[in-house]
Design brief:
This is Glycerol-3-phosphate 2-O-acyltransferase 6-like. Keywords: Acyltransferase, Membrane, Transferase. The chain is an alpha/beta fold. The protein is built from 8 helices and 11 strands. It has one domain: 3-Layer(aba) Sandwich (Glycerol-3-phosphate (1)-acyltransferase). Helix content is 36%, strand content 18%. It has a 5-stranded mixed beta sheet, sandwiched between helices. It has a two-stranded parallel ribbon with strand order 3-4. The C terminus is likely disordered.
Length: 263
């Protein structure tokens, strides 16, 4: 296997660059077919909701897609499955990933009030994707869902994301996350499966006096049941303490002060 990987890299890296270029430069409506030609399979299950017409006059909120988090590419494959670009909020990605991303990405500040205001504003503009686990997980488990999203809208659609890779993992805990998309697309025939679950009924949302934690835990259980995964109470920090020996934060120096961001 080690020999095969070494022999494949001169082919796999240019192929990964070609796949990334296709996803970044082509219209989202044809990315699904471009990926298929380039050996990337996208399997879509369930019935995705139609786009919501939002405006300042009707005060209708866009749909918030609640995705399980397997790689940094989850929102991109969600958009590929829908055939339209869905903006995503991120807990922190590298500048390279933001540059090559075909969808709009907005960084969360990890300040609860600031993030809540920003997400509400984005939902007023249309649909939005979020991965409330806060970090990727390779194993068949779901990390604990942050409950903030449940307080911001009742238009919630759970999405079960799962992928299959043969040679390279598209995630890292210790390395540079900017290479994660390249490693995923370097696999000879990677697969992403996107399953759209039923929109959460009104009686199971915070609008019917459910607590945000009850809503978040329910969605976690629904996605886990779909994927045959196990729900856990482990958080992003728990993952990084176990795998990298730190709490998953990095320090970025700015001209004015040090800014701490989540990994």
């Amino acid at each position: 296997m080690a020999l095969l990987i070494i022999l494949w890299i001169p082919i796999g890296f240019p192929l990964a660059c070609l796949r990334i270029a296709a996803g970044s430069l082509l219209p989202m409506k044809i990315v699904y077919y471009a990926f298929k030609v380039l050996g990337v399979r996208v399997i879509v299950k369930g019935t995705p909701p139609p786009p919501v017409e939002t405006s300042k006059t009707n005060h209708q909120s866009g749909v918030l897609f609640i995705c399980s988090h397997r790689t940094l590419l989850d929102p991109i494959f969600l958009s590929t499955a829908l055939g339209r670009a869905i903006p995503a909020v991120t807990y922190s990605v590298s500048r390279l990933s933001e540059i090559i991303s075909p969808i709009k990405t907005v960084r969360l500040s990890r300040d609860r009030a600031t993030d809540a205001s920003m997400i509400k504003k984005l939902l007023q503009e249309g649909d939005l994707a979020i991965c409330p686990e806060g970090t990727t997980c390779r194993e068949p488990f779901l990390l604990r869902f942050s409950a903030l999203f449940a307080e911001l809208t009742d238009e919630l659609v759970p999405v079960a994301m799962v992928n299959r890779m043969s040679m390279f993992h598209g995630t890292t805990a210790r390395g540079w996350k900017g290479m994660d998309p390249f490693y995923f697309f370097m696999n000879p025939s990677p697969v992403y499966e996107v399953t759209f679950l039923n929109k959460l009924p009104k009686e199971l949302t915070c609008g019917s006096q459910k607590s945000s934690h009850e809503v978040a835990n329910y969605i976690q259980r629904v996605i886990a049941s779909t994927l045959s995964y196990e729900c856990t109470s482990f958080t992003r920090r728990d993952k990084y303490r176990a795998l990298a020996g730190n709490d998953g934060t990095v320090v970025e120096k700015t001209n004015k002060a040090n800014k701490v961001m989540g990994c």
